[in-house]
Amino acid sequence: MSKIQELAAAIESGKMKVVPGLIEEALNEGIAPDVILNQGMIDAMGVVGEKFKNNEIFVPEMLIAARAMKKGVEVLTPYLKSAGTEPIGKLIIGTVVGDLHDIGKNLVAMMIEGAGFEVIDLGVDVPESKFVEALKENPDVKVLALSALLTTTMPALKSTIDAIKEAGLRDTVKIMVGGAPVTQAFADEIGADGYSEDAASAATLAKSLLLG
Amino acid sequence: MIIIGEKINGSIPSVGDAIARRDADWIRKLAKRQTDAGATFIDVCASVKEDIEVETLKWMIDLVQETTDLPISVDSPSPHSIVDAIKFCNKPGLINSVSMEGDKVDTIFPVIADTKWECVALLCDDTGIPQSAEKRLQVFDDLMAKAKEYNIDPSRLHIDPLVEMLCTSEDGVNMILDVMREIKRRYPTIHITGAVSNVSFNLPARAVINQAFAVVAMTAGLNSAILDPTNRDLLGMIYATEALLGLDDYCMEYITAYREGKIGKIKK
Asked: In angstroms, what separates the C-alpha of B40 from chain A's closest C-alpha?
């Protein structure tokens, strides 16, 4: 098994502790940091996302894989920076005002991070104005991901998008929405640019929104 | 949970017969099944007359060690047999057991003083099994004084507070749970063990009682147990309880046990 395959297997099975060592070994073998990131880690998270989607693995297994991924990114970041590899894009995520659910949102954030984004997580119960502010403070953010888990907080997805429109920022950012009660039809109705039904497809969607 | 696999015990009639006819495969099979089921130690108890106990234990220990890398739990009522038999073990395991009866502690503790051997210690003494929590804790104090004398760290001890039959108890298992909690409070790194199936003696549907006992005892600090690891329902209950008590990060022990087919419905 090559070092890259070993690393991918470690990420997939969430073996966080061995990840830094495998990355060091891969670097010592002369493998480029971006190859390690893409083939050893991001692809592995893609596999994890796919398995989760197909009900082959449980939530904790996805969480530990994401944790291993995060550890790997930490170790790899200085090498990526010196090699000039930047994150593919910047994304803001949050659960809308009135809604305290964060598990789904966190999973999505981790998968998107795993896909190579730099993610700014505003947390839960985020008022419209806070999303607007964050977009103003980070003009390089290209995608905004909004989560709502309750039928009663779904309207806040719309009011958040409206607030962004009013602030004149709607054209600067692609907006994706998700959460248990949310549907593609609802996303279309409130003027979102995209909808995904699970964390793995959210990562794919974020990428395609970024690339236009 | 530390699981001491109890199936290789000469006091179980089928095993006693296998030992008597020196049926090596019988012993190997039991060692293999318990290893596959996730045991931490394989208990080996000859249950024969003392004059042939050491040679019998040697035969059994050799067979288990041929079959599995798991450490042995050397089980005998005779401290002298234990001291002789641990020499046959490839690596440090568990001694089952000492108590404050007779010369047990003074025979065994010096031998394991500077080793990695762990030891089960029962809370009884020459007067028998103390009836109150206070008296049982007094036996515990005496035992810990001995452990200190021989420099045996609490983390190497598995204290068995001696669970009694539920059918004759007046307050359920409350007293023993109090003892467990108090021991754990005084020595956080100590192990608390017990034979999970004793509690249900002479009651119907014993398996249910055993499972419920495992759960309540685990909330009081039980983290080691002498049981049949191939009992899937009991193991499932133990893995689930560990997860519920926050002792299983990301429920991964539970999920892994399921994936390895150790718990849950048998997949067809």
From this structure: 22
| Residue that is written with structure tokens 């997949």 in the block | B267
Range(s) of the domain holding residue A115 = 89-210
Fold of B92-225: TIM Barrel (3.20.20)
Q: What is the DSSP string of B140-196?
A: HHHHHHHHHHTT--GGGEEEE-----GGG-SSTTHHHHHHHHHHHHH-TT-EE--BT
- Indicate if the pLDDT at residue A84 is higher than 70: no
Q: Which residues of B touch A63 (CB under 8 A)?
A: 250
Query: Is B215 touching A (CB cutoff 8 A)?
Result: no
Would you call B240 an interface residue with chain A, using a CB distance cutoff of 8 Å? no
At A44-73, the pLDDT tens digits run 988 988 898 888 999 899 889 988 988 898
Closest CA–CA distance from residue A8 to any residue of chain B (Å): 19
Q: pTM for this structure?
A: 0.78
Contact with chain A for residue B244, Cβ under 8 A:
no
| A129 and A48 together in one domain | no
**Distance between A83 CA and the closest CA of chain B, angstroms:** 35
B124-166 pLDDT, tens digit each: 999 999 999 999 999 999 999 999 999 999 999 999 999 989 9
Query: CA of B85: how far to CAs of B58, B106, B207, in Å?
Result: 6, 17, 33
Q: By the CB < 8 Å criterion, does A13 face chain B?
A: no
Q: Which residues pair with A119 in a beta bridge?
A: A91
Quick check: A80 contacting B, CB < 8 Å?
no
Among A82, A103, A120, identify where a domain stops.
A82
Instruction: Give the residue from B209, B162, B157 showing the smallest Cα distance to B184.
Output: B157
Mutate to test the interface with B, among A48, A64, A107, A110 (most CBs of B within 10 A): A64
Q: Which of helix, strand or coil describes residue B118?
A: strand
Q: Which of A62, A82, A102 is the last residue of a domain?
A: A82
In this structure, the answer to whether residues A16 and A99 fall within a common structural domain is no
Nearest-angstrom CA–CA distance, B204 and B265: 24
